[in-house]
Amino acid sequence: MAHNNFSYSLLVVAALAAGCGASRKKTTTTTMDNQTTTVASATTTNPLLANWTGPYGGIPPFDQVQVADFRPALEAAMAENLAEIDRITATAGKATFNNTIAALERSGKTLDRVRTIYGIWSSNMNTPEFQVVERDMAPKLAAFADKITQNEALFKRIEAVHNSPDTASLTPEQKRLTWRYYTNFVRAGARLDATAKARLSLINQQMAGLFTRFSQNLLADESEQFLSLNQEADVAGLPASVKDAAANAARAKNLPGWLITNTRSSIDPFLTYADRRDLREKAWRMFVNRGDNGGDNDNNAIITQILLLRAERAKLLGYKTHAHWRLENTMAKTPERAMELLEAVWKPAVARVREEVADMQAVATKEGANIKIEPWDYKYYAEKVRKEKYDLDQNEIKQYLQLDKLREGMFWVAGELFNFSFSPVNNVPVFHPDVKVWEVKDKTSGKHIGLWYFDPYARQGKRSGAWMNAYRNQERLDKEVTTIVSNNSNFVKGQPGEPVLISWDDANTLFHEFGHALHGLSSNVTYPSLAGTAVFRDYVEFPSQLLEHWLSTPEVLQRFALHYQTGKPIPQALVDKIESASTFNEGFETTEYLASALIDMKLHLAGDTKIDPDAFERETLAQMGMPSEIVMRHRTPQFGHIFSSDGYSAGYYSYLWSDVLTADAFGAFTEGSGPYDKEVAKRLTQYIFSVGNTIDPAEGYRQFRGRDPQVDALMKKRGFPVVEQRRTKQEKKTRG
To answer: What CATH code is carried by the domain that includes residue 324?
Structure first.
């Protein structure tokens, strides 16, 4: 996931307007002397406010973090930032790039550091004690963001620089940064009158509180619900590695037997292998009903409120719907273009599901199961079909997929494509004993590139899924600042001392998230707001999805897909089976994703209609012809991408949009000398991975590929027939 997989600002509106990446728009007037005194005093007692010191240009002081420090640190850092904004708006003479835009880039450094660690605790160490702070600070942070974007004096300076004839003398990167600030402020309501601004700020504060409640409710259902198994018959069919992980989970809670936790990394293997159909159904219902069980943790009413507030905000800002506002500043530009792509793939995906279900039903009938395939049967019987059709056993593959070896494989790929080397370091503090750190260098020159933190395992208080964060953005505004990035996963530990074995799908996800990290590590820009993954939402998944292709290359498999007992590489015969089955179950994978993406878009195109989430989901899916054997990948009450923040709201389509680029871009390698073609890799770094948001992504892609992307490659990649997409009037006008 970026998802939320990136260093997204906790300042909700500012980050939303920016699209992706840390925002640097702060704001209004207060008494500077008092603020400076407060911050100076707080810095002496609160380690979160201090500059990061130590090796590698400074490192986060994770060993000094106390939850009690977060609230005063955030408040002091916001006060300091307001004082910085005051100094910018009080600058004598006309507004220039240096005294306004560059000054904004230099502001808010303390707050950036504090909210980085705050965000890490929110995602990885979310204790009840921390949740109290979250609920208190969410609306305050949102109100603070609005003080920035609604600061009239500050906006006038930004507007003056944006409209000045002097911009002709700026570098392309400076022009891009100026445009970004101006556009983000306008989109966040800088031009509204005082009454509208006040209402907008109240909306943003209310939504910030709702986002926090949604996330905490979801985390509660994931943490507090589990399936406890006590008899050998309960775990019949489970491979040894899955049983070991379940036993380890039970021990962690001081329970006997085995425990299936309410996270995808635990549920998916159980649904794939467990012979007990009644227990598969029980586990499935537990998982798909997260946030939808009534009571204190139910998210339906929260979703209704969020949707209404988003619709009202969009109208205040002059847009037809929230979706129209969100997509204006993306590659797609309009919801219509995004929907066009989603709908073009929907029909062939559903058609493939019907074929897959027929195959599974035939297997079930042959075995005398006398059942109709239900959602809790899909993965179980799909695995049986895989064995029958392709003589391919996922559990056989898993024996060659050791987490640590695959991590080494990722490092090797990074060395081949980006000339990076990774060396473990032990002289930096971490926020949990599971976290390990590597220094990244240029292989040729030995130059320090950055740090990579890896937090691979599931635990109490850690949100589910996988993501990337940037703890510090690369920049060279006043001096060279190297980046610090992390990858976070939720693999389940097995027996102590035994290697962690993961599925082929999990291995793909591992490479995917590492692609985000490489995007951040490759950054080579001047201004931090344009660095790394701070790109359009429907472009940010492109570099990460692209890296998935290297997992299946022979060079990686022969070196790093090694049997956990014998150490022998994966046999070529098994690799051939993986390749021949590469589009197997693609109907399921694509349809469950598309259902979520379409529901997301339709929810936000509904405007100010009051929506009952459960009813809307049920009725809309029925109208779409959703196969009864599948549910959305993220059902509405647990759809954290779109309801734990504004991050992917009306933007979940981005994964498919980016995959069009991904499929087409990998063709540049296959048309060359192969996946490790040095010239193509050089262009990839130069025009995609290193440029951040300094150029228009469409232009960057054209410079890399020599043309615009073609959707045909996506359809072929997924094994679907190539279809002719309808072209909107706007697209025809644009393309001629």
So the answer is: 1.10.1370.10
